[in-house]
Amino acid sequence: MAPSPPQPLPDDLIPGILLRLPPDDPAGLVRASAVCKAWRRIISDPAFHGRYRALHPTAPVLGFLHRPRNPKLPRFVSTTSFRPAAADHRQHPLDCRHGRAIFYDYGSLGGYVVWDPATGERHQVRDELSADYLPQPAVFCAAGEGCDHRGCSGGPFIVAFAGLGTLDLGYHDHVVEAEGWD
């Protein structure tokens, strides 16, 4: 006689199990959401996201940016199974904070690209300072005071350009709302 199949888990236990998936490999949540519609519903619920962030307060390090001497080497080095789209080797990393990175884009003749590695979204930004200044951009979250910078991917951001001229300092900022992503 064949053994009887195991009893299914009670529905109230599944969210607790999914909450304990390790945060250092976000692909685990993606794979779990593909198991069935019920699990996808649980994982995509904003309440689940809040409980997951409360249980795992430190955001995972998905990788790091570097400036290799060999332009054929990747500029983003992954530390997890997370794999962003292939990097454009005409882009030079300049700054990274609040879940976004900004690159100088040699292919756009003076433009910059803001990249959100969690979503893959990119946004072109132009430097509005005159040619008399040597600009240094920085990217910041613009979600407001209540943002903990763990769930602001795809939200609004500011690119601030500060440049040193021969006699003074120049400044320009560029604000991008959530729907402004490319």
From TrEMBL:
InterPro entries: F-box-like_dom_sf, F-box_dom. Gene3D superfamilies: 1.20.1280.50. Residues 3-55 form the F-box domain. It holds the Pfam family F-box-like. This is F-box domain-containing protein. It comes from Sorghum bicolor.
